[in-house]
Every structure is written in structure tokens, then in C-alpha cells.
């Protein structure tokens, strides 16, 4: 089961596309547009570009905001270490964004919930999460005019221990605005793979995408004059 589900709490629209299917390897431009705005190769964006503002991106706090009482101490240690690894991986890229660990409230809040995978979250104490379907992990972004204001991450306490670090890394990268996965055999070892939760390092095109997203002058807001490819993504997910 894939860890990713993204709920966009963006006034004025709903953006349901969760992955872009691809037949083979993409060049850097196509890969970036796929994960940043859900564009199929050669096609138009299907989501807005979202980023943290210039004045916040240099010191974003990431907090383990709540942990279900069902979590054993050894399990909590796995989530704590996974979160620290995710922060270290992102900071090591020198990508124009800097994260720090915090306690309690944070710009990016992580909630470990008792909800089993595939069930609807209830009684989490977080209104933006309650009532939403949880696969393994889920990101809720609140944004306006292309600027992310806050991010909430929920991860099931029943995630398999070998997947925890990968899930946390992916969800935090998603919370920085790279919201869409890719599906294809060439990307089975990508953090953005729709079909796996095993990557714990930011390398190759995964690292490139985050660096580009927070480059001083990213060239990504123009659209091609007409899409050359329009690949179906299958049924829409339940989020809105």
C-alpha cells in the first residue's frame, strides 16, 4: 500500500491527481513538472505550484505534534529517528530551504495516529485530518496564492517498521510542495514512486526536483502552448 495521499486545503479548487503514469525515464524538466504540478510528459499542469514563502523557508520547524497512546516506546523511537533522518536529508541538499526539529506546534506538524491503513481517521484532535481516509501517510496543505501557510502530516501507527523512515521522508518532501508521484518501472527506486515505500535518501532526480523547486528564480510557471500528451490516471481518489 502506498504511503501518499495529499489533501489540498486551497481556497477555490480541488486537485485530485495523485500520480502521473510514465512509460520510461523522463528528462529533468518533465520529471520536475510531474512531481511539482502533476503535468504528464509534454502536458499542462493539473495542480498549482505551491511553495513556502521566502521569509519562512529558511527556518521551517518540523514537529512531532502528537502520538497515539497505542504506540510503544520502541515504535516511537523509530518515528523519531525517521523524522530526524528526513530533516537531515533535506538540509544536506542545500536546496534553498532549511528545516529544524521542534516540539509541539510547528510549521509542519506530524501526527502519528492509531487509524489502521485504509480507514477513515477519527478523534485525532486535528479537524483537518478527521474524516479523511488514511492509506499509510497523508499530507494536508493549507495554501493561498501559491504560498503554503501550514502543513499537517498523518502517519498510521501500524506502518511497517521498515517503511517508517521512507514514509516520513516522502510526506515531508510532499509538505514542501512536491505533491505528486510518478508510476512507471523506471521510477521504482524514486521517493516519488507510486508503488513503494523504501527510499530513505534524496538522490538523483528526487534531489534535483527539490533544489529546482526552491531555486532563487525557478522557471516553471509558464505552460506549454498545447499539451502533447494526455495520459489517463484512472479513477479519482476520494480527497477534495
Automatic annotation (TrEMBL):
The keyword Coiled coil does not apply. It holds the Pfam family DUF2927. Residues 213-240 are annotated as: Disordered. InterPro entries: DUF2927. It comes from the Bacteria. Residues 1-16 form the signal peptide. Residues 214-223 have a biased composition (Basic and acidic residues). Keywords: Signal. This is N-acetyltransferase domain-containing protein. It comes from Jannaschia donghaensis.
